[in-house]
Amino acid sequence: MLKVAYHPIYKHPLPDGHRFPMHKYDLLPQQLLHEGTCTPDNFFEPGMPSQADILRAHDPGYVRALREGELTARQMRKVGFPWSPELVQRELRIAQGTIEGCHFALQYGVSMNIAGGTHHAYSDRGEAFCMLNDQAIGAHYLLANNLANRILILDLDVHQGNGTAEIFSNVEQVFTFSMHGKANYPFKKEVSDLDIALDRGTPDRVYLEKLSASLSFLLDTVNPDFIFYLSGVDILETDKLGTLGLSLEGCRRRDEMVFRWSHRHQIPVQCSMGGGYSPQLRTIVSAHAATYQMANQIYF
C-alpha cells in the first residue's frame, strides 16, 4: 500500500500575498482522492520527532533558537517565513512524516510525504523556506537505527540541495546527488558528492538523457540500500522560480525513470515533494499528483 504523510498543519497559513503556495498542501490530497490514486487509508498523520532525531542533523543552539522563537530578524528573512509556534510545529511534523515514511518504504518499497524536501536547511540555519532538513533527519535516523548502511540522496529539485550537501559533507555512508539549474538559487553552491548543473532552458530530452546516465553511474558506484528522492516540480518550463524547460510529460517521465530504477533494483525509496511555483496552482498540483500516480502504478 502506498503510504502518504499528511497533516493539516502542512497548510499553515501565511500572510496575504506570500509567494509560497501553501494551498497545494491542502489541494494535493484532495486531488489524489478525487482521481482515485489514494483512498483515506493511504494517508497517515505523522507524530512528533524526538529531540535526538532532530539533533543528529542540526546544531543544538539553532534548534533551541528555532523552537523558542529566538532567531534574529535577519535569520528569518533568509528563511522567508515569519516565525510562529505553528510554523515550528509544521517543520517538526514534516520531519516526522519523513521518518515514519522510512519505515513504510522499507515495508512496501516506497512512501511519500506531501510536504518536505527542505534541502536548503543547513545544520545550523534555515534558508529559502526550509528550517529543518527532513530528508537529512531521516537519513541520520536510518543510520542511527541500523536500518540502512549506504544512503543516496537523489535531489531532482531545480535548486541545488545546498543544506543537504553541508550536513553530509563528512558522512561517508550518505551520498548526495543534486541535478539542478545552473542559474538557479543558491547562487553560491555547496559541493555535493555529485552535482550536475543544467543550462537555462534544458529540455525534456537532454534532462532525461543526463538522468538516465546518472542513475546508471549511481547504481555502479554508490550501490545504495536506501534512497531519499526529492521530486520538486520546479523543473517545469512554467515555473516562476526555475530556469529549466521541462514539460509536464517530461516531469512525469522523470518520476517514471526514478521509480522504475529503484523498483527494479529493490531499493526502498522515501519521496518528499520539494518545490513547485508555476503561476497556475492547478499546474503545480497536477505535476505533484503525477508523481503519486507513477509510484502507485509501478509499485502497487
TrEMBL record:
Any Pfam family hit: Hist_deacetyl
InterPro entries attached to this UniProt entry: HDAC_classIV, HDACs, His_deacetylse_dom, His_deacetylse_dom_sf, Ureohydrolase_dom_sf
Domain of life: Bacteria
The entry's keywords: Hydrolase
The Histone deacetylase domain, residue ranges: 19-288
Family note: Belongs to the histone deacetylase family.
Name under which the protein is recorded: Histone deacetylase
Organism classification: Bacteria, Pseudomonadati, Bacteroidota, Flavobacteriia, Flavobacteriales
